[in-house]
Amino acid sequence: MDLGIQGKRALVSASSKGLGLGCAEALAAAGVDLVMNARGSDALEAAAERIRADHDVQVHTMACDVTTPEGQTQVIEAAEGVDILVTNAGGPPPGLWSDWEREDFIKALDANMLTPIAFMKALLPGMMDKGWGRVVNITSQSVRAPIPALGLSNAARTGLTGYVAGTSRQVAPHGVTINNLLPGIHATDRADSLDGGVASQKGISMDEARAERAATIPARRYGTRQEFGAACAFLCSQHAGFIVGQNILLDGGGTNLTM
Asked: What is the pTM of this model?
């Protein structure tokens, strides 16, 4: 399917690896020029070079920490005038409710709520002026079904979801859509970290921990960054203009909900 976005320009944050990289690759395959951001310059430059070689698109990289005001300013300046925004950030560490102090919540909010909001506030006006734009926020299945050990993520990402619910309806008349993609377990570093914790706690191997988790997913496997990226690219396409303010699960059926 021709997504109709060749020649558009996108900012994809946290895109040197994992789900962010999957989104950047899928958008590049559709002919979209990219601004890619991550904290680590080596992995970011390597990913950007592969995308340039594979898809013949322009890729501008910006290695910085976007949870800081300085990092946000750098990325926003580099991304001025983009048509597409994909926000993404690694999740906060797991733990118990009694483990976390105010500073832990502030860090989670900065990464998973306030930074995406800052990007939207800065870049939505340009999209609205052009009468076309797409925003996709990568959140988590935990905003639909909270995960006890991920209380920091549950709280911060649910706050972003509430913000998007109202904002998406306000910008839709200007041809701009905002939606959220809610991943379950995908084969990423985040899954490795979570599985490593289970393996350590139970005294089992990583393969055994993965097999245990995969058995709880109706699809009986982890998702891939490629299929996640394809879903993101569709939401950014010309064909998705009537999808507004939605929270779309990509979890292999792992979240048992009726709606």
From this structure: 0.95
